[in-house]
Amino acid sequence: MTDSTNGRRDGAPERHRGAVTLRRESIPPSTADEKLLDSHHRREWKTKDAWRALRILSEFVEGFDTLADLPPAVSVFGSARSHPDSPECEMAAALGAALAEAGYAVITGGGPGVMEAANRGATEAGGMSVGLGIELPFEQGLNDWVDIGIDFRYFFVRKTMFVKYAQAFVVLPGGFGTLDELFEAITLVQTKKVTRFPVILMGTAYWSGLFDWVKGTLLADGKISESDLELIQLTDDVDEAVQIIVDADAALADANSKA
């Protein structure tokens, strides 16, 4: 997945690429995603991309097969760079525990920071803790609190697993990767690719500037509608966040029973 020295007595870097572990000089200078999306080597497309398609298919099969028996789950996103004693990590640990106590598995990107805190909270509360890792040229590998871990080569395969097996997204403070997951989730709900899917932002002080911009610029300029703002819910209250998810599940179950 990522370069890491965790558990390596010689301090050598280590990268997990799917089922393969690479160390020292065997670590390539680029990732599988980078090679797939590289437009500067067009001559290789006919000779290599067909094989890559089979590898992509195998990642989907691995993910579907591994996660099919999960209980209801919630995907939790946030920065890998957050310090363990930061407010967002403390909030993530409390959230992971509360979700586990409510009967939900917790799915994260499997890394450190907020992800590790959410996994730890779920595991310590007796819940199921899932980590979906990705091959990157930096940061650490799967954290020690993950019960079920899958390392992916391709971001788009991993993103499918985050959505397919989750009843909701909870997004804590994070960087570009967190923003990517946030706006993809909102887009899927807005376009009705997924329905009755809560998207909850936790850390109102962190997200308020972005939310104000969405209202003051996107809405004011007609790029989104008033109802689109209802797709996002902000709170700092862990119990409120979990209740939003529970209520959405109950509403979905009620609608299905009447269908």
Can you walk through the features of this model?
The protein is α/β, with parallel strands linked by helices. It has one domain (62-258): Rossmann fold (3-Layer(aba) Sandwich), CATH 3.40.50. It has helices spanning 32-37, 45-67, 87-101, 114-124, 155-164, 176-190, 204-219, 238-258, and strands at residues 14-17, 20-23, 73-77, 105-108, 129-134, 148-152, 169-171, 199-202, 232-235. The strands form two sheets. It has a seven-stranded parallel beta sheet with strand order 6-5-4-3-7-8-9, sandwiched between helices. Strands 1-2 form a two-stranded antiparallel sheet. The model is unreliable at 1-10 (pLDDT under 50).
Short characterization:
Keywords: Cytokinin biosynthesis, Hydrolase. This protein is of the alpha/beta class and 259 residues long.
| Helix/strand order | EEHHEHEHEEHEHEHEH
Rg over C-alpha atoms, rounded to the nearest angstrom: 19 Å
- As for the CATH topology, it is Rossmann fold
Assign the CATH class.
Answer: Alpha Beta
Number of domains: 1
Q: Please name the CATH architecture.
A: 3-Layer(aba) Sandwich
Q: Treating each run of at least 4 consecutive H or I residues as one helix, how many helices?
A: 8
Largest sheet: 7 strands, parallel
Keywords: Cytokinin biosynthesis, Hydrolase
EC number: 3.2.2.n1
Family: Belongs to the LOG family.
Pfam family, one: Lysine_decarbox
List the helices and strands and how they pair.
Layout: E1 14-17, E2 20-23, H1 32-37, H2 45-67, E3 73-77, H3 87-101, E4 105-108, H4 114-124, E5 129-134, E6 148-152, H5 155-164, E7 169-171, H6 176-190, E8 199-202, H7 204-219, E9 232-235, H8 238-258
Parallel strand pairs: 3-4, 3-7, 4-5, 5-6, 7-8, 8-9
Antiparallel strand pairs: 1-2
Helix pairs in contact: 3-4, 3-8
